[in-house]
Design goal:
Blueprint lengths: L7 E3 L1 H14 L2 E5 L10 E4 L10 E6 L3 E5 L1 H7 L2 E9 L12 E9 L2 H6 L4 E2 H4 L2
Parallel strand pairs: 1-6, 2-5
Antiparallel strand pairs: 2-3, 4-5, 4-8, 6-7
C-alpha cells in the first residue's frame, strides 16, 4: 500500500517555536495568503481568531493538530507544491527567545507526479463549517 503524500512539513526549529506559541497562546493555526505583505510568510493566529474563509484550503496539519490554511487564489498557483515551514527572526528578534516576533517562512518544491497521485482531495473552509 502506497503512503499518502503530504502538502506541508515543518523544520525542527519551526516546530520548537510553534510549541512555544501554543504554550503561551493556546491552539494556533497558520494561514498563508498572497494578500499579506509577504506571501512567503504565513501568519499565525490564535485558533479562535482564525481568518479562514469558506474557499480557503486546508493544506494539512502540523504538530499538535495545528492547521495550515491557504487562501484559494494562492492554492491554485501552489497546488502542485510541497511546503516546508521554517522560521526567520523578525527585525531585532530571535525566534527562540521571542516567539511572538517570529516570522514563519516557507520553502517549497514541486511535488512529483507520484506524490500528486496519492494526495487526498483538499478540504476547504466550507467543509469546516459543516
Amino acid at each position: 500500500m502506497q503512503q499518502r503524500a503530504q502538502r506541508v512539513a515543518i523544520t525542527d526549529r519551526a516546530r520548537n517555536v510553534l510549541r512555544q506559541l501554543i504554550d503561551y497562546h493556546g491552539a494556533v493555526l497558520l494561514h498563508q495568503c498572497d494578500a499579506y505583505a509577504d506571501p512567503a510568510s504565513p501568519r499565525w493566529f490564535p485558533a479562535r481568531e482564525c481568518p479562514v474563509g469558506s474557499a480557503d484550503v486546508l493544506l494539512g496539519y502540523l504538530p499538535w493538530h495545528t492547521e495550515f490554511w491557504m487562501c484559494a487564489e494562492q492554492f491554485e498557483l501552489w497546488k502542485h507544491t510541497h511546503l516546508t515551514v521554517d522560521v526567520a527572526s523578525a527585525r531585532g528578534g530571535d525566534p527562540v527567545t521571542a516567539p511572538e516576533r517570529v516570522r514563519f517562512r516557507i520553502r517549497s518544491r514541486l511535488l512529483t507526479d507520484a506524490e500528486v497521485a496519492t494526495l487526498p482531495p483538499p478540504r476547504t473552509g466550507a467543509d469546516r463549517m459543516t
